[in-house]
Amino acid sequence: MRRQLRPTDVKRLNRTWRRNTENRLALILESVTGPFNVGSIFRSAAAFGVDQIWLAGNATPPTNPKAGKTALGTERLVTWHEPVPATEAVKAAKEDGYTVLAIELTGEALPLYRADLGRDVCLVVGSEDHGCSPALLEAVDGVCYIPQVGRVGSFNVSVAAAIALAEARRQEWENLPQT
Fold first, then answer.
1. Which residues contact 165 (CB under 8 A, 6 or more apart)?
2. What is the pLDDT of residue 179?
3. What mean pLDDT is predicted for residues 143-155?
4. Each residue of 28-61: b (16+ CB within 10 Å) or e?
5. Is the pTM of this model over 0.90?
């Protein structure tokens, strides 16, 4: 009979995954202004063990009450930086040892599953309306996209961030023994 795990069992399971996680993950949110999107991104970031988030452009900070309502307190679990110009955020991430990869549709972008995410990586998502700016795209180390087969042109920015974070962890964990 299948049953949900008790809270103690969930903590034990999460502790096992943390022990098998070495790569650092970070995010840059370039001009992501929707507070509910920002809150959702912070919640996903906390779940996937993101070390830090750089806000860039006119990104909404997680201190916004609507962002906090969605983040449910998880914004306290991730170090974040006040908004700076996008190229400064990229520079800061690179100086901290991250490979910086934008999630964007460009002519040379790799499908997300082919991008080398099994290392210290900082993923960048852009504004809800216009994606990543040209200046940011010039500053990053590479670009990847999330393949889609449906009739919709793009994902919501918070969903795209969660998919990219999940793929980064999947690549890191893919050769672990099954638990």
1. 25, 27, 44, 45, 48, 50, 123
2. 56
3. 91
4. bbbbbbbbbbbbbbbbbbbebbbbbbbbbbebbb
5. yes
